[in-house]
Amino acid sequence: MPGLLLYGRNFSSQAINHLNNTGKPGSPVPQVIPRPEHNVSRKEISSAALKVLYRLHKSGYQAFLVGGGVRDAILELHPKDFDIGTNATPDEVRSLFSNCRLIGRRFRLAHVRFGREVIEVATFRAAANHEDDDSALDTEGRILRDNVYGSIDEDVWRRDFTCNALYYNIADFSIWDYTGGFEDVKQKRLVVIGDPLQRLREDPVRMLRAVRFAGKLGFSIDQTVVAAMRDCRGLLANVPAARLFDEFLKLFQSGFAEPTFELLREHNLFGELFPATEEELRLDDNFVAFVRAALRNSDKRVADGQSVTPMFLLGVFFWVPVKKLAEKMREEEKMSESQSINLASYEVVAGQQRRISIPKRFTVPMREMLSLQPRFTTTRGKRGLNLLEHRRFRAAYDFMLLRAAVGWGDPELAKFWTDVQTQSAEERASSFEMQSSPGKKRPRRRRRRKPKSES
Ligand code: ATP
Ligand code: MG
User: What is the domain-level CATH number for residue 409?
Assistant: First the structure.
């Protein structure tokens, strides 16, 4: 059965029959896992998602929870994001819910809003049929169109990984499994549905998704997928830069940035996203330590429910490329360190935009944060004091602490800036040796020693 060798897993005998009949993988009949045989409880599903499921079902449509919501519920991870699949068309969905908006041009989806929670309802659709319609793919095999409605047993094959293709049926609380995803979730395996090479070519972002799920869930990536990633990683260059920014946010702001970073590097994908950063990471272990420390902090903030901003991590990724370029600029032309960092960040960001388009609302504060770094060495006078009032002080200070933590900066200086923040106005005036407190002038700070390789 030569066709079978294409696929990364053994599908059921029904799937094999189906493959023989149609040349496509898959079973037209799912394995139905009844409620007593799985652990997905309605308690794990938000009341908003349950409302949508029940209303669709009571109106005579099929209604399934699908994707990450089912996967994470099986893993008892308390999912927060719920996607629903149905055979109702988007217009039919809209007529059932007053709080519903249709979005998307290429493929229309219904968004049903409950306060701040949005439930995404997608009509089942068929995978693009590449044999019949080459125009749906670009020359590298990337999917450009997949907008044909279908039934659930077609919908399943357009999904990326078996763990993401489980359907929880609100009619009887069973799980429908066409691809062996239930066992893969239990075994913590990330397996591509269908031929990994073809599926990664169709949509190279799936490589990033593989790494993201592996990082978040601790899944191992199936060897067939790892091998296909080696061949396909260059195709990320063809993905629109705006889409890669969205994916960057998911990779680095979901609370598992550190393990995800390690996996991205292990699979040589990080350099596809941040080439200038990867080049420096290879030369400088301290830079790797610096990035890791930042990601670890960021993950901790997410775990503690604190906010995180992408501009901080971007500043971390660009710091060494920016510093190097800034030094070169200062050798060529006389300018202050801050100025050179500002100009160099501008250039590094411009180079980066070709891969990942970063909105101005992040690049502008990021440049400010980086340009402020040299100012932490000014601890006297009004200029020093004014830094405390700068609107980017907090981020710049956190960034400086991180530098100090890996030996890039003076720990004494870090302590100085930590202490002054809690001082009274009078104490501050004295710390900064302002003229208003002449009697309290401290002896000049001793020259700080320059660490061996300061960045
Ligand atoms: P999470 O919400 O935790 O990021 P998820 O699996 O729900 O994970 P979504 O991006 O919300 O991911 O997508 C919902 C589902 O849609 C996925 O589980 C998968 O079945 C399908 N899907 C999403 N993106 C793709 C893709 N690029 N290729 C194929 N299927 C996809
Ligand atoms: Mg989701």
Answer: 1.10.3090.10
